[in-house]
Structures are given as C-alpha cells and as structure tokens.
Design brief:
The protein is an alpha/beta fold. Helices cover 54% and strands 10% of the residues. Strand 2, helix 2 and strand 3 form a beta-alpha-beta unit. The two termini are 31 Å apart. Mean pLDDT is 84; it is low at 157-166 and 198-202.
Length: 280
Amino acid sequence: MIVYLYGPDSYRRGEKLRELLSLYKKKNPSLDMRFFDFEESVDDWMVARDFLEQPSIFQSAKCAVIRGVTIPDTKEWIKTLKFYIEKKNLFLIISDDKKPKKAFAFLTEKPVVSQKFEKLVGTKLTTFLKNKAEELGVYFSPDGWKFFIKYVCENGEFLSLKISGEHGIWLGMMTLKKLSLMRQKKQIQLSDVEQITNWFSRDKVYILTKQIMGTGDWKKKLAVLEKAFFQKEDPSHIFNSLSYGAYGRNALLLADYDVSIKSGKLEYEEALLDFVLRGV
C-alpha cells in the first residue's frame, strides 16, 4: 500500500504523517520501519528497494517513510514503486512538497491513497487556527484574536520568503502553543498576545532550526543553538520545532532523544546540545 502526501503545507502534511505512523504502529506493534531521504542521498533508493524486498522474520509488517521520492528518476525505481502499490502488510508513506513529475503521476491516482496539502491563506488559515486554538484550550477575547490573526498573517508571509515551504501556519501554531501555557485564564487578552509576540523577532525558532538542519558543521549548529538560548527560547520549543522538520537519520535520532527525555534520562537542553555536536 502506498500513501502519497504532497503539497507546500509542511505543517499539516507532517501532522498527517505522524497520524498515519501512529495508526500503523498501533495496528502492527512489531512494525519494521525505516526512513529514507533521497534529498540527502539519491542512491538510497537502492537501499529502500532492498529493505522492501527483504522478508521480515520477526516483524508482521513493514513501513518505509520516504522523502524526495521522485529524485531517483530511474525506470527500476518507478517499477519498484508500482509493484508495491497493492501489497498487504507493506506500507510506503511518501511526503513531498511538490506535485510529482509526469513519470510519477501514478502516485496521485488510485489505488494509491494520495492527499494534497495546499498552503492555507486567508479564511482557510483563520479557520484552521481557530479550531487548533480550541483543541489547545486557548480562547481569545475579540481584540486578542484580531491581533493574533493580524500578527500571524503579516509575519507569516515574511517568514515564507525566508524559509522554503514554511508560512503563517507554523508561526500561528507555535504562538498558540506558547499561549496554551496561559490556559488557566478564561480568555487570552490583547495584552497576553502582545506579551508573547513583542519579543518574538522574525529571526526566531523557525529560521534557527532550519539553519541547524541546513548544515553538517557542528560549530555552526552550536552557534545557532547558542543564539536560540540567548533569545531565551524554550528548549522544548526548539526541540519540537526541530522534530517537525526532521527527516531521515535526523528524524530517527530526534525520536530516540524524545524517548530519553520522556523517560527522564535527558533534559531538553542536554538532548539539543548532543544533537548539534553530532553534526549529522
């Protein structure tokens, strides 16, 4: 079975990916899972093919999560994908930011399960954030909501020029999560939103985490992390922002850190420091 998630809205696409992985893990506790990022290494398509072909001895099902699926534009890779479209107990979940080129057009056709995630703007973005605010238990006063939406729309568009694939939805969600710390209040007032956003410069977590992921030089990673700490960013916020945008080996590594943090073996600060010093 192949699930193809595509489109420029990486936030909702990432949400859907995590939802599917959680579902598959629940239904298949012994799921054999691997992550592949062909943007990091185009030749990894052969590793992915071998993983899919090898029989699982102790696992009941397999799952390959792939990014950049159309980069290895070879007939053999396309043939491999088509072969596994209707295979049971074998799941290929693909997440990409662009519509596939012609040779891979079959990924948007049945029996492949495909879903497109367009960039949310205007009323669609406002409605999405309103629903998410309610899920997080964040309720605004009229003035607070008006200021919040204006802030997200204006600054989100600026961020979209700085960060490929990112836009207002990321800024809105991260701001909502900060405001959710005030859930004991019946309403989030204008002054509460101003307090959160006044110090939130445009060169913040979204850009900083992209810079960390964008280099293999641990010294540069460390410098960016120090900047984030200097700006008094919440370590859990930095960690979660990194996790949302992570793929391949980085995603696996951050998942391991997450387990260690939740089990009390590591603090967020320790995990972040160890992550950047690895220079992955």
